[in-house]
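Homework-ish question, so no full write-ups if that breaks the rules, but can someone show me the predicted structure for this set?
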Amino acid sequence: MPPPVTSVNVRAVTLNIDGRDLSAREDETIIEVCRENKIPIPSLCYLEGLSIWGACRLCLVEIAGQGRLFAACSTRVADGMQIQTNTERLRRYRRTIVELLFAERNHVCSVCVSNGHCELQYLAQTCGVDHVRVPYRQVSYPVDSTHEMFRLDHDRCILCTRCVRVCDEIEGAHTWDVMGRGSDCRVITDMAQPWGESETCTSCGKCVQVCPTGALVKQGTSVGEMVKDQHFLPILARRRHLT
Amino acid sequence: MNLDDLEDLAAQYRAASADVRQEVRVCLAASCQSSGAQPVFDALVAELGEQRPDCKVKGVGCMGLCSAGPLVSVAAPQSGLEESTLYRDVAPEDAGEIIASLDGAPVARLHCPTDQPFFTRQHKIVLENAGIIDPDSFRGYVAQGGYAALVRALSEMTPADVLREVTESGLRGRGGGGYPTGLKWSTVAKMPGERKYVICNADEGDPGAFMDRAILESDPHRVLEGMAIAAYAIGASKAYVYVRAEYPLAVERFQTAIRKAKRSGFLGNKIADTQFSLEVEIRLGAGAFVCGEETALMASIEGLRGQPRPRPPYPAESGLWGCPTLINNVETFANIVPIIREGGDWFATIGTERSKGTKVFALAGTITNTGLIEVPMGTALRDIIEVIGGGIPGGKAFKAVQTGGPSGGCIPAAHLDIAVDYDSLKTLGTMMGSGGMIVMDETSSMVDVARYFMEFCMTESCGKCIPCRTGTQQMHAILDRLAKGQGSRADLALLEELCEVVQATSLCGLGQTAPNPVLSTMRYFRDEYEAKLGADRQVSLTDSQ
Amino acid sequence: MSMTSKIKVATTWLDGCSGCHMSFLDMDERLIELVQAVDIVYSPLVDAKQLPEVVDVGILEGSVSSEEDVQKAREFRQHCRILVSLGDCAVNGNVPAMRNHFKLKDVIERGYLETATLQPQIPTRSVPALLPVVKPLHGVVEVDVFVPGCPPHADAIWYVLSELIAGRMPDPSSVTRFGA
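A: Not a homework solution, just the prediction itself:
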């Protein structure tokens, strides 16, 4: 959530990220400070303007003096914090997590409508995933084309829940949710009805725009044609916060 | 109400059944019920009839030796299990003989000596009333000294006094983590805010663990009393008990306990005529293991999907509906009453330097005396398995014991002499967990064991974070290949790497600990993994259609 | 430069569209530069019919879908010092692997019976038996360099070969990606 008008009580802190001394407001999270300072941290579920989900685990960072890793999206900065965002160990973990995602469902980039505009595809490249070491699970997932404007392909879904959050928090419709457990989890519309039959969906298309992959796309798009635009989100989120 | 008033009440309850000289106690907890305790109870009641006002047939909670159930004990009122005559494997047809023997010699055919180590080597604090009192009887609990700790806390102690006693006791959380209870309570007590909550975590989900179930089924008022003391100490007026729906008997008995305590003024408004009020509500878990994780549990209570969220903020800071919340496990709350009654310093004399008090363990697997035991922290594992547990049946050799369920690890024979406490188990690569001990004999394959626990974690993963959701899938697939003799050395290396990643990156405890059974079986039984390697596979990708 | 100092390169295609080889040819005038440094000793693009005993760099395109693909992959692994997995089909199964969601029997019946207009029959000779599951190349043999892309751009192939010629291990992620 973008912070509201700065409160007078919020102090400034100094911290060190990857050897750089930086200042920040104490109510900021590590990932916000990194984005401000152009320090690249990979992430999938985090999206500025939506609530924190903390599930993709790609933004994990090392904090000096702490035994465990911390998700940059859900950890607030503190004075004197020493943070490493790109150690060999973190790179290795991120690589493996991206590989696990590719092996879970069916991400066939070459024939995907989001080819070239996909955050997962981009992450694979930046994390150095040039092949997947674990076996592909080879499980079929359905495609829901019942909505007249949009299409849902579960094969490409990574369960980041951006669609669920934007629909609930920004559009206020709460059409989307998640059902099932483990790898059987699926995003659903209403009570797992076909999207086209949803009574709550306003067809605003925000879910499609925030989806990082080719899971939610516009009908009628062909390979590589689905380009997403998320500029609306910080603006709407800020406006929603003010009212 | 002060302690004298309560003692008067207890004396009054005892006087009401002063005629009874002998009690025939039938265990009506879940495990004896499953071997037919209810018909035994009914037969005994019918057999006794109305002729003997000096005798009474009474349903009680767990006596511990579940493998010998249905259990029946004959004892003087208020006396303990060891002074009683215990009968094992009782059938309804035995009722006549048992009733006839009340004035004479015990029925030798059914007799189960209580001077054997299984009974004499235990130290009962949490289970002191289990198998003695009728769990459905409020009067029975009070007659046994119940609610004295709560009345004492309310009438003679400030919340700060209570916190001090709990802190001094050195009690650590019995749910598995071993976090100092006094510290947790003090943190919640210090948090600002009008509304605070107490939650009792009774979502016992580890395979082979039934400690919390037994406590709730045997002595529900003790848990309730502990929760009330906690609520008083931290300043809460609302408490939840989160019980899994798979424990219908525990739920029923706890519900009865809440109702009766409320009717008698020990719950609800102005408890024991003080300004302290507390409402306790039961919430049923719908069967997800992850809901034992505190943030997922709170989400479930709030009516949301039972999924964990990142910590911090910890529940002590921002828990149920954003309010400071104290979450403790059933056994932790069950320890509070004796701590307040006898004092924190008394409690601290039991156990080891850093792990105080006793621990209830559920013995399961290939062990002679399967059942529930309570021993002081620091008891040698060998004593638990070989002396109290009676060793391995059928002349087989002990191989390993799994502690901590799917989050823990195994301990091989070479480490049997370890003194069991939170820290010693950690050094062996396992954990105390909630207290399940699954004993395995020489015929168990440790790769199969690892696969079993991984399958459990895989099916119980909520699916929120990627490493747990997909990592457990992949690890299970590898373990399955290994178990079938189709795995390769590359598989083994990949498995170890996935263990590290899932452990380090998962969102909650379920994922972070899911690799533990694999890591621990690999640590102690690497040869079994090596022996399972298939012939000439160079790489790990295999058919998975 | 003498023939013996040139790097021996072998290529072939497994289950793919040969598009990666076309992309290879798209190196255009750089091919001239390439032949100064390498000797293509075996490839669908040249006449040689026998894989030499020792090859420096083997390049395989396509996924492993049939018994014949497995044999070819193993042969390349045996004879090549460095094995390159070229293109998405070899790297991740890609389009050929999309049949993995169906039973092999259903796939064959669909291909040879249901959609055939003339004399529908399932071939028993001359066509290699299909595997039940399509695998990426590293599913059957160890691979040293992965070059994703559908197809990888000629520039990416040029970069990878240039690095290998120079005796360095390339980092293809800097120039190509899945689906590129």
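Now go work out the reasoning yourself. Hint: Residues 117 and 513 of chain B are 34 Å apart (CA to CA).
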